[in-house]
Description:
Blueprint: H1 20-48, H2 52-95, H3 100-114, H4 125-153, H5 156-190
Helix pairs in contact: 2-3, 2-4, 2-5, 3-4, 4-5
Amino acid sequence: xxxxTGKPSYLLNAPAGRGPGxxxxxxxxxxxxxxxxLLGGVSGWSLARPDGTxxxxxxxxxxxxxxxxxxxxxxxxxxRRVRDEIAPILTAIATxxxxxxxxxxxxxxxxxxxxxxxxxxxxxxxxxxxxxGLRSAVDQASLAVDTYAVxxxxxxxxxxxxxxxxxxxxxxxxxxxxxxxTQLDQINIDAGYGHQHVFLGTAxxxxxxxxxx
Length: 213
C-alpha cells in the first residue's frame, strides 16, 4: 500500500502577502487619491477666485472712491473761497448799515458765489449732501442780500421790517452753512484728510486742522 503524500510544492497556494495583483491595487488607490486631492484643490481655487462680475464691481468701487476723494478736495477749496466771500456780507447785514452801492457789490459777490454750484458733478451721497447744503446756504445768503436791497430803497415806514427780515434770512444762511460745513468736515475725515474747518466762525469741535484723518 503506497504512502500518501501531499501536493507538490508548486501546486500549493501562494502565500498571502504582496503579489502582482495587490501591487496594482495599491498603485490604483494612490492614483485615485492624488486625482481627488488635485480636483479638490482646483475646485477650492475656483471658488476662492473672484469671477468677472466681482472683479468689475471692485474696480468700479475703487474708481468711485478715487473720484469722490478728488471731489472732496475740490469742494473744500471751493467752500473756503465762497466762505470768504459771503461771511463779511452776512456780518454786515446783521449790523444793518449799508447803502445802495454797497448792496449792489454784495449782489455781485453772492452771484459769483453761486457759480461753482451751477453744474454739480455726481458724487457719493455724503459728498452730495455737503455740496447741496453749501449751495442752499449761498442761495439763502443771496435772498438776504436781495431783501436788504429792497429795504434800502423802501419807504422809511417799511424799511425797518424789511431790514429785520433780511437779518433773519442772513441768520438762516449762517445756520445752513454751519450744518453743511459739519458734513464737509466729516467727509474729509472719512477720506483721510482730517478735519477741514470751513465754518463762518470758530470750529465747534475744537479739533486741530488736518487731525483725525
